[in-house]
C-alpha cells in the first residue's frame, strides 16, 4: 500500500483512485480526538521530557524532585506505565503503602478507561496483572 502511494507520487504507475485508508490505522473516533482536549497524547513530548528529568533526578540522588515530576505525570493521566511504576517504587522504598496503592490504582483506572491510544492500551493491558498484584499487596499492608 505504501509502495503504491510512493510510486504514484514519484512517477511510477498511477495509483488507482481509492479512498484513503484511516490515518495510521486509527478509527474515526480516534482521529477526531487528535489535537482536542480529549486527545490522550496532548502534550506527550513535554510529559516525556518531564519523565526523563525525573529519572535523572532519581539517578542524581534527588528522589523528592523525581516524586514531584512523576506525580505531575500521574495527575495528568500520562498514557505510559513508566511514571506510575517508578513513583510506586519510590513510595514502596519509603514504606508508604497508601501512596503506592494510590498510584497503582491510578494506573489501573487509566488502563480500564478505554481512552488510551491502541498501542498504549496494549502495553497497559500487559502491565495490568503486575500492577493489580502490586496494588493488592499494598491493600493488605495499609
Automatic annotation (TrEMBL):
Lineage of origin: Bacteria, Bacillati, Actinomycetota, Rubrobacteria, Rubrobacterales
Organism for this UniProt entry: uncultured Rubrobacteraceae bacterium
Pfam families: TPR_7
Stretches with biased composition (Basic and acidic residues): 122-135
Segments for region (Disordered): 112-142
Entry superkingdom: Bacteria
Gene3D superfamilies: Tetratricopeptide repeat domain
Protein name according to UniProt: Tetratricopeptide repeat protein
